[in-house]
Amino acid sequence: MTAAMDLTLLYRGPLASCDYDCPYCPFAKRRDSTAQLRADRAALDRFTTWAREQTDDRLSVLFTPWGEGLVRSWYRRALVELSHEPHIDRVAIQTNLSCRTEWLAEADLETVALWCTYHPGQTPYERFLDKTRRLDGIGVRFSVGIVGLPEHLNQARRLRAELPERVYLWVNAADGHTYTDEQAALWSELDPLFSFSRHPHRSAGRACRTGSTVVSVDGEGTVRRCHFVKDELGNLYDGSFRVALAPRPCPLAVCDCHIGYVHLESLPLYDVFAGGVLERVPTMEARV
Predict the structure, then answer these.
(1) Would you say which domain of life the source belongs to (predicted)?
(2) Residue 21 has what pLDDT?
(3) Which of 33, 103, 170, 276 is deepest in the core (most CB within 10 A)?
(4) What is the pairing mode between strands 112-117 and 141-147?
């Protein structure tokens, strides 16, 4: 008999294809073959089945695919199914929001959430904004974000002006881009939490929830502490990972991705994003 868990899982299967081709995107860009898509679907179905069966545990799940998941029916189905499980507190996914939104009416809106990113040049602005209005109309919990490149500033300002005030607009510092104080101030006007993204966070030796209450899972069921530390903790499906769960300091010099540093205990982000860590929705108090 294994002890019950209260665990957050970051799932990333083999899917790597995306319907966008953003030049600044760090994710892989390829066209998945039929066989690769079948493998991704089988891996996701296996994970979803496992998660639904863990009724003695409390789980939260964030899907972080290399590609765009919601254009695939199996990801939409996974979110709907998991959202109705009483032992699952939150199920969310990172998405470019190019998919249709009607399927969300089948989900439990108290549990499902979306982390949406707007990519200028990849989709018409009005089309993206209309998708956010549909989400808001349905009552879906979501955030909207953009990469903080200079050429995106006007679009970001337009988004902030046209999104409801209750919808958080986050800004990711662009990879390899440095910001003067003046530049950072412009982005901070739109996202009061931009300072957390502006610089990588020193993490070596510091306490992090990953590996203890947060883990990363790949399509084979291999469990690691997070996406950025390759050491294996065991396997999800044989249960071997459970005995490896324990508080442990970060082995990396810095952490510069939100899905990583949000879990650092040296940062106040669990309070800032209380109730919305996975979908990147901060408390209203944290937005001012």
Answers:
(1) Bacteria
(2) 57
(3) 170
(4) parallel
Rounded to whole angstroms, the Cα distance separating 197 from 185 reads 13
47-76 as b/e: b if 16+ CB within 10 A: bbeebbebeebebbbbbbbbbbbbbbebbb
Q: What are the beta bridge partners of residue 146?
A: 171
Kindly state the percentage of the chain with pLDDT values over 70. 94
| Distances from the Cα of 114 to the Cα of 61, 100, 276, angstroms | 12, 13, 10
Contact 216, 235 (CB under 8 A): no
Q: Do 201 and 245 touch, CB atoms closer than 8 A?
A: no
What CA–CA distance (Å, rounded) separates 224 from 221? 10
CA separation (Å) from 188 to 171, 173, 207? Answer: 8, 11, 27
Q: What is the tens place of the pLDDT at every residue in 127-148?
A: 999 999 999 999 999 999 999 9
Res 17 pLDDT > 80: no
Mean pLDDT of 171-196: 96
- Contact in structure between 136 and 160 (CB atoms under 8 Å): no
Pairing state of beta strands 112-117 and 254-255?
unpaired
